Write a sequence for this structure.
């Protein structure tokens, strides 16, 4: 993995969630970030200077990708999960580059959490490595094939 692994993305796998993130210099403007694959999530940027994002679509895996380098920085974030409506995944991808959602050369780390068991996915926290093209959404939900 190249030094690009320090770039980060937020992963929303159908879970209504909100995120704010800041670096040493202050809050980040998430208005410059984009969903990937395009149109798979409903990411709404809000807050002061775009420092807050809400993902409200219950659907296929989606990433909210930025070009943030964590090299020599302290990053602080807050994730709020709405646990009453659904119990899907939320997490972070590190080293996820533009186009990786549909790239045979994708190589990133994925830290995700699921509230409750929901076949075929089990609850809990997982650290996985994503490589190449996913065969289906189950790659993410079961941590198999391209996400192990």
């Amino acid at each position: 993995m190249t030094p690009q692994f320090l770039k980060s993305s937020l992963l929303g796998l159908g879970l209504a969630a909100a995120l704010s993130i800041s670096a040493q210099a202050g809050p980040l403007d998430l208005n410059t970030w984009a969903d990937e694959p395009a149109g798979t999530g409903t990411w709404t940027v809000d807050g002061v200077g775009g420092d807050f994002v809400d993902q409200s679509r219950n659907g296929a895996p989606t990433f909210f990708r930025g070009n943030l380098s964590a090299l020599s920085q302290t990053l602080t974030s807050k994730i709020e999960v709405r646990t009453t409506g659904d119990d899907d995944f939320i997490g972070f991808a590190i080293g996820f580059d533009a186009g990786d959602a549909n790239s045979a050369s994708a190589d990133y780390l994925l830290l995700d959490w699921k509230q409750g068991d929901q076949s075929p996915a089990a609850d809990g926290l997982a650290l996985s490595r994503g490589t190449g093209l996913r065969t289906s959404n189950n790659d993410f939900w079961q941590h198999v094939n391209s996400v192990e």
Notes: Helices lie at 138-142. The mean pLDDT is 78.
